Amino acid sequence: MTIPFFFFRFVFSLENIYKELSTDIEGFVHPGHGDLSGWAKQGVLLLNAVLTVRAHQANSHKERGWEQFTDAVVSWLNENSSGLVFLLWGSYAQKKGSAINRKRHHVLQTAHPSPLSVYRGFFGCRHFSKTNELLRKSGKEPINWKDL
């Protein structure tokens, strides 16, 4: 999945994700692109509550039905899997994730990686190495975050 150039806000968030990875995962080098298919092939799912937006109009497709769909995806994963690691970035994601069964899954929470909130806890959260630790403890393969 390549991120189109006009998704500036998302690109800034992705840049901050790459910055955190470079301090958290030894040997991680900024890939110079937004193609995250290497993560997807390993089972990583990055999911926003709303999956589309009009160019340059944040939240323009809010309350158009995406929330019900993405809630159903999270609910299905919650009920039909075990030992997943949910990374809830930002207060909105944390509210949406309140129904996740913390006895069956792992939940890591911090600020959103957007430029507006990245210094409120996202930088330094080490969610990528913590995810791999939790996966190993659950007997699962860790994510190769450098595979992009």
Automatic annotation (TrEMBL):
Any Gene Ontology CC annotation: mitochondrion
Name of the protein described by the UniProt record: Uracil-DNA glycosylase
Any GO BP: base-excision repair, AP site formation via deaminated base removal
Pfam families to which the protein is assigned, alphabetical: UDG (PF03167)
Organism: Leptonychotes weddellii
Listed transmembrane segments: none
A single MF term (Gene Ontology): uracil DNA N-glycosylase activity
Every Uracil-DNA glycosylase-like domain range: 4-135
Sequence similarity: Belongs to the uracil-DNA glycosylase (UDG) superfamily. UNG family.
Keyword field: DNA damage, DNA repair, Hydrolase
InterPro entries in the cross-refs: UDG_fam1 (IPR002043), Uracil-DNA_glycosylase-like (IPR005122), Uracil-DNA_glycosylase-like_sf (IPR036895)
